[in-house]
Design goal:
With about 170 residues, the chain is mainly α. It has five helices and two strands.
Length: about 170
């Protein structure tokens, strides 16, 4: 039987039959044109595949009659280097890595220390400036208070300023 006839017999499409053949890796006879030629045995195998799929088995988990289920195996790899030599090399690399990390951290700490010292100097300078400004403001305040006391005492006269004309103040007359 050809693919179309088997598909009609099983009630599926021809592409489904082709997919089952490929997935189950069935060895089928082929015609001169390369089409599958199904025998009674192969039709029975396909019926079994259909029954398994209808019962919920996945396509990749199919069990074909007369075939053992394939299991993938990974060949054991023999190491080229002895394990001890490899471990020693890893320990050396880890030590170098730790040493490098310590150097980087030390450098960063020194940089941070310098920055902190510079900031402390700047804070001290700003504190001095603020203190001197406060002292100057306090002196001005005492001078102003003394002048106010003098102006309020009886018998003391202050010079009176002439009031300038607004227009003359604009032109500087």
């Amino acid at each position: 039987m050809n693919t179309s006839a088997v598909a009609k017999l099983l009630g599926v499409s021809p592409s489904t039959i082709q997919r089952w053949v490929k997935q189950a890796n069935l060895q089928m006879e082929r015609t001169e044109l390369g089409h599958y030629q199904f025998s009674e045995e192969s039709i029975e195998v396909l019926k079994d595949i259909k029954d398994q799929l209808n019962s919920g088995v996945l396509l990749q988990d199919l069990k074909v009659k007369g075939r053992k289920h394939r299991k993938a195996t990974i060949p054991a790899v023999k190491p080229d280097l002895p394990v001890g030599k490899l471990m020693k090399r890893m320990e050396e690399i880890e030590k170098r890595l730790d040493r490098k990390a310590d150097e980087v951290v030390s450098y960063q700490l020194l940089q941070h220390r310098r920055e902190i010292e510079e900031l402390q100097k700047e804070v001290a300078r700003l504190t001095e400036v603020i203190t001197s400004m406060e002292e100057a403001a306090a002196q001005r305040e005492t001078v102003t208070l003394e002048e106010n006391k003098l102006s309020l005492t009886p018998g003391h006269t202050l010079k009176k300023f002439k009031k300038r004309n607004i227009i003359s103040s604009f032109f500087g007359f």
